[in-house]
Amino acid sequence: MNIRLVDEVYDDLRMSRDWYDSKRDGLGEEFVELFFDVVNGLPHLTGRSAVDETGYRPKRMTRFTAV
Q: Is the pTM of this model over 0.70?
């Protein structure tokens, strides 16, 4: 499985990194690292979670999931 991230993902990632860094120095980099860890693990998770109302199988980053 190949995963392709569109430009908007990188834009959102930069904004998110900056926002988390404004909360605590270095937190933004933790967010980015975890994001890419999750993305790189996606091919191994195919079919392991239920399809949600959007038609996708969500994978949450529990350390950074908003409630």
A: yes
